[in-house]
Amino acid sequence: MTNQEGAATFEFIADRAVLDFVATVADRGTTHLEKLRVPGDVARWVQQSGILHDALQVTDEQLTHTRAVREAIFGLITALIDRGHPLPTDRELVNGVATRPRPVSRLTATGQVRRTGDLDAALAVLAADCIDLFDGRDRNLLSWCADPTCTRPFIDRSRGRRRRWCDMKGCGDRAKAVAYRQRHRTTKVGT
């Protein structure tokens, strides 16, 4: 998705920044829609996520590094959900990024919290969030979206763990529409 200026738009629906971060590539394995196409996309994602409040200046080299970190995180999350073994290279990269200094939080005169730092600080937050999934309470709540083209992980906090879609407004609505059309085609053919 892009806005009128052609910039990527981002969704923050996963309740965990790291899961929204890996979703900056949509439809992995099919269209592989890259949403971090230019350095400004990274700066916009970080600011929109709320990890940092100040605008970042991101270089092409930092864009490449950010994508590499995202893919390593995706590899670790995939291993966690699918009960596989993380690749050592993914684990080492994420562990290394997580050791970087985190954003600095300050309380303003108006009672607002402002978080400042650089791109490394933002990536450190995401890497630490990924690591926390391996030991945190959400570990056993991770699932893949049931939409066959969606490759977005989500946390299923529903009663009975019956949630199937990363978001009802997108994947869930599409699935309902397909099921509705199939039911009505079957009804018309049968009459």
TrEMBL record:
<dbReference type="InterPro" id="IPR021005">
    <property type="entry name" value="Znf_CGNR"/>
</dbReference>
<dbReference type="Pfam" id="PF11706">
    <property type="entry name" value="zf-CGNR"/>
</dbReference>
<dbReference type="InterPro" id="IPR010852">
    <property type="entry name" value="ABATE"/>
</dbReference>
<dbReference type="InterPro" id="IPR023286">
    <property type="entry name" value="ABATE_dom_sf"/>
</dbReference>
<protein>
    <submittedName>
        <fullName>CGNR zinc finger domain-containing protein</fullName>
    </submittedName>
</protein>
<dbReference type="Pfam" id="PF07336">
    <property type="entry name" value="ABATE"/>
</dbReference>
<feature type="domain" description="Zinc finger CGNR">
    <location>
        <begin position="143"/>
        <end position="184"/>
    </location>
</feature>
